Fold this protein.
Amino acid sequence: MYYKKELEAIKKSNRYREVKLFDEDLIDFASNDYLGLSSNKELFEDAYTIVKENKFNSSKSSLLVNGYSKIHKNFEDQLCKYNNFEAALVVGSGFLANISLIESLVRKKDILIMDEYYHASGILASQLVSNVYTFKHNDYNDLEKIIKENKGANRIIIAIEGVYSMHGDIAPMQINELACKYDCILIVDEAHSSGVIGDNLLGWYDYHNIKKEKNHIKMGTLGKAYGSYGAYILASEHIIEYLQNRAKAIIYTTAPSLFDIALAHTNFKYIMKNKEKLKNKIELFKNVVKEYLDIKVDSLILPIVINDNKKVLDIQKKLLDKNILIGAIRQPTVDKAILRIILKLDIREDDLIKLCKFIKEYK
């Protein structure tokens, strides 16, 4: 029992986690399947057909050996076309994408400035480099202060999220303005914004109508709105070329699964074709939350601060008894315990109203 004491301490603080098999018939307000595409069997069949017609079923090796497939390339080309970036690179996961970007881009005489709420993968990656700073969440004045204090740096790399996974809020446009003003490289983790915000549902750059520049990088994941698994990086040809030659988490891992990429591509085309219908449903759900809870939601993430680890678990259990699953998020993921509710578009409006009424009554 090597870690008995540590596990006991975790349990005592109500921070204990375990892998569970939930009933598939639960009303799911917990997962990041924002658009409800993970249960779309027609799109699944389309992706299956794409892979079936390919000579190989798997990637076989890393992208830079012989693992790069036309399935990868077709998806990259589509991402570039719609997002208006010069080049793209598929990656095994969002975690690997953040490791790849930060570990390779930040060199000895550079500095990295991250939002204090940046994803755990970025925080871990930042431990592989030196000269790392954090700025107060979404506080562009604090960011500019740090930039000015480090004007002697060779390069300045800024890392933010488009939509923050636990708070559901959107990074302000002023951060991009500062990145361009001071010629900083800007990494935007769009895991929770792609497919959710923007006139074309393309995420943060789309939401703010930002013209793409050479300093812009977009990283997105495929396991959320795109209903698959994996990730991608969009940037200038120059930066993608550099990543192919320096990013260890890309060079030394097997290329992403062919089926996962085919499924993401199929789902992406579906989103682009049906974006107006999806946007209307998103607005409908936001209006329901506003009407019943008087909370303005920026994305499809609704966080309810409870600030008590035991209470969030109790509420989660009570809702499970009503056949509803929500997230009960505790430290160290968040500072204060929250109920994390995802406004998944495959959920019935009546069920969302039912949940809102329960939350209002409880509060």
Q: What stands out?
A: The first helix runs from residue 4 to 12. Residues 164 and 263 are 25 Å apart (CA to CA). The chain has two domains: 4-30+274-362, 56-272.
